[in-house]
Amino acid sequence: MALVDFLAANMPWAWVIAGLVLLALELVVPGGFLLWLGVAGIVTGLIVLVEPISWPLQWLIFGVIALVAIFAWTRWMKSRPASGTDNPYLNRRADRFIGQEAVLEQPIAGGFGRLALGDTVWRIAGPDLPAGHRVRITGSDGAVLRVEAI
Length: 150
Description:
Layout: H1 2-9, H2 11-28, H3 33-50, H4 55-79, E1 101-103, E2 112-117, E3 120-125, E4 134-141, E5 144-149
Helix pairs in contact: 2-3, 3-4
């Protein structure tokens, strides 16, 4: 019973310390998820420090604050416009070619072929066309560019 009495007497600080530990773990583990759990733990500890409440209600407060914080953060991040960057296609290299036109050096046979763009030879998908035909890039499926005849 000594441990239970100790925890009951120091419960606000246990929440605050748990929140700080979660914030420290956020520095090591990527994702941004532990940040909001840590904040919820600290806020719960501050609430319990002001108004002593029972364990089940403390866990309920922690859960509600965590869910509200995570939900608000994800909604806010989705509503923000993409921040300006000097290389918007850094992780979407295929998307930079959409709308461009090129001349086939090799034919498209069986729905697939290859096309040199920039410093890369891309796999392309489209209608069967002979070499020398002009195509327009209309989209991408991973590393495969979709093309149509012009």
